Amino acid sequence: MTKRSLLYLTVLSIFPSFIMVGCASIIGKGGPELVNIRSTPDQASVTISDETGVKIFEGKTPTNVTLEKKKGFFSGKTYSVKISKEGFSDRTVTVNTKVNGWYVAGNLVFGGLIGWIIVDPATGAMWTLDINEINVTLETMKQGAI
Question: H-helix or E-strand containing 26?
């Protein structure tokens, strides 16, 4: 077998593995993402609800929460993060998903059509969270005059 034949055989055996995966999946961006939640003052209550209003997390700051990015095959999730503490005004932060850059650009080079329409949408790797850290300062509630 010549060197040229060996090169062709190697390329032909590796090429199918590139077209059977999505680029965002290759990079490891599938699955849930970690969000760090902090507040001043500490020990504020945190309630996270998804776009349907279902409560998915309750806890106290500081905390770390993993949030799923995929709602459906081609749709990302949205979360409402409410931070509250007695004597302070509540704060609500919206966490959205956005299209992952590796999904767009990387599939041009590595994943191809299979990555764009099957692998990355199915695994959720096509999405990334727009916020990975929430750090809020709660304002003291003003007492009204009697």
Answer: helix 23-27
